Amino acid sequence: MSNPTRTYLDFERPIAELDAKIEELQSVSERNGEDAPDVADEVAKLRQKSATQLKNLYAKLDPWQKTMVARHPERPHLKDFLAGLITDFEELSGDRRFSEDHAIVGGLGRFRGRAVVVMGHEKGHDTQTRLKHNFGMARPEGYRKAARLMDLADKFGLPVLTFVDTAGAYPGVGAEERGQSEAIARSTERCLTLGTPIISVITGEGGSGGAVALASANTVMMLEHSIYSVISPEGCASILWRDGAKARDAAIAMKITAQDLIGLKIIDKIIPEPVGGAHRDRDATIKAVGDAMEENLSSLEGLDPATLRRKRRERFLAIGRSLMEPAA
Prior knowledge:
By secondary structure, the chain is of the alpha/beta class. The protein is 51% helix and 15% strand. It contains 15 helices and 8 strands. Strand 5 (198-207), helix 9 and strand 6 (219-223) form a beta-alpha-beta unit. Helix 1 packs antiparallel against helix 2 and helix 10 (233-240) crosses helix 11.
């Protein structure tokens, strides 16, 4: 049965119209209390048409459409991944310097039998939780908390799993007064100096230094329709053209999609999403992310701290070098 409460994006309007027709036919059939063969046949044809259009539509999304999918409110968020992948989760709060920041959630748990430290950005799923988590935009204390959790992972030899989904670090006056840029740099540095494996997945938006602070990992992966960029398309458009309406042009120019970034060797793997995006089948998406994390974590197990740091360093230093090599 179609979902009447689903949020459709602007470019999904033809799909929304077909699903509305399906819903209408089903409602009429249920109201009349009849199981009419002709109605069932029509519903089946419309469902097939909707599925085909959805598959064709998502096979050729442009970068701006992918940006909208990455921001979809029904995509799985950190707490969905924690519920689906982590058992015995124990949240750890506070940076031990100023206060707690709810935009970054982290703690200890077990990932498919392994003890791990896990953390990530949480955007929230409704007005109340979005305000609580500040829409996933962390303040300095969030990044200092992340560094503290990585210290803990290093001390006890635990691998670190991070889930990135943020438009960027919070740009408020208070955050800047408390050293936002320094906190981001310290968190990034701690990722790079960690003596245990660290695996990162960009699950929605990977915005600016606020994303890099949790994604300077041995392995960086992206969901198929997520984005990863130095600035939002709207921010880029407002700086370059002083016109936020040119966000689509900026999204195309910045090469922010997983398909662009794997070609530039900025990420290591693309995790496929269900047809129509992660929001249409959260459980399948969460399982796919878990499988990819387990595979990459297994490949890093047994490596000593020096080797893990060296591989991480070489990975980031290699970015862009192949683009500078002269053609043969």
